[in-house]
Amino acid sequence: MKSTEQSRLGRDFLLGRGGEGMVGRALLLVAVGGALGAVARYLTTSILPIDSYWSTLVINLIGSLLLGIIAGGLHGSGIVSDELLLLLGTGILGAFTTMSTFSLDLVKLIDDAQWITATLYFGSTALIGPVLALIGWKCTSMILAP
Known about the structure:
Number of domains: 1
Order of helices and strands: HHHHHH
Distance between the termini: 14 Å
Helix content: over 70%
Strand content: under 5%
């Protein structure tokens, strides 16, 4: 399934075109998923024995791979429904990963004149994250292809 079709399906579901009461159900799925993702993020950063910016990188990279698998491969193959995509993708992974934390961590590194670390952190997030999302998407699509 093309990404534009996936976006349309998500919008149709969220706007209630999938039946009565879908807007409330969609919001509940995103809210529950968001709560679970935020707790998972907090626990992950508490457990990882590394500086906060590296734990943010690890979380964002894991989230990129998982979102590629879920949104690309599994949803595109019909294994993951629109509802499950909202719960897992928008809710859990949306709260688990965060661009705002990445941005703040990067600004702190720059402010502390940690230029090499800031460059590595930025480059890793900007390059490896999308590559992992693509790998997750394509590998899952290939595995599930008829």
